[in-house]
Amino acid sequence: MVQVGIVMGSTSDWEVMQHAVRKLGEFGISCEAKVVSAHRTPDLLFDYAEQARSRGLKCIIAGAGGAAHLPGMMAAKTTVPVLGVPVPGKHLGGQDSLYSIVQMPKGVPVATFAIGEAGAVNAALFAVALLANGDPALQLRLDAFRRQQAESVLAAQLPEAR
Ligand code: RP5
């Protein structure tokens, strides 16, 4: 059964959002990736949100750029946790998306991550952490990931000064 839904406003968001898909795959989490646009396909957005809980989704990672209403509108229509990823666009460097996603009115939360690849990866890691609350084997994999990450930083060598 699909555990995590990954939605994005456009195919042009895939370059960033594929990093979330890849990271979930590394942890063996089953996910689906789909274009769902708040503006161009609003009926699909409503259907996706309304069916999310009954389909067994544990969280939804939603990435969008520009007037990034997808995460907020998704959160408005479901209580399945929504993790928002601001995708940088051509003109404003993603700050427009960040502000659109982070400034939710009280009562309808969206967990908001960094702009771009770091946000996509961290949204996936956050989804892993959520799922690990009820899955001790997954928690061990998450702990191992953190250990390996620390070891690779500790082993890193800086280049010679020029
Ligand atoms: C948003 O508009 C999408 O999330 C995308 O980041 C942005 C631009 O979409 P395209 O014009 O590239 O399809 O809805």
TrEMBL record:
What does the record give as EC number?
5.4.99.18
Write out the residues that bind substrate: S10, D13, R40
Organism name: Methylococcus capsulatus
Protein name per UniProt: N5-carboxyaminoimidazole ribonucleotide mutase
Which pathway, metabolic or otherwise, does it act in?
Purine metabolism; IMP biosynthesis via de novo pathway; 5-amino-1-(5-phospho-D-ribosyl)imidazole-4-carboxylate from 5-amino-1-(5-phospho-D-ribosyl)imidazole (N5-CAIR route): step 2/2
Q: Domain (PurE): give its ranges.
A: 2-153
Which GO molecular function annotation, any one, does this entry have?
phosphoribosylaminoimidazole carboxylase activity
NCBIfam families, per this entry?
A: purE (TIGR01162)
This protein's UniProt keywords: Isomerase, Lyase, Purine biosynthesis
Q: Which PANTHER family match?
A: PHOSPHORIBOSYLAMINOIMIDAZOLE CARBOXYLASE, PHOSPHORIBOSYLAMINOIMIDAZOLE CARBOXYLASE CATALYTIC SUBUNIT
The free-text function statement in the UniProt record for this protein reads:
Catalyzes the conversion of N5-carboxyaminoimidazole ribonucleotide (N5-CAIR) to 4-carboxy-5-aminoimidazole ribonucleotide (CAIR).
Q: Which Gene3D superfamilies match?
A: 3.40.50.1970
Give the reaction(s) catalysed.
5-carboxyamino-1-(5-phospho-D-ribosyl)imidazole + H(+) = 5-amino-1-(5-phospho-D-ribosyl)imidazole-4-carboxylate
Similarity-based family:
Belongs to the AIR carboxylase family. Class I subfamily.
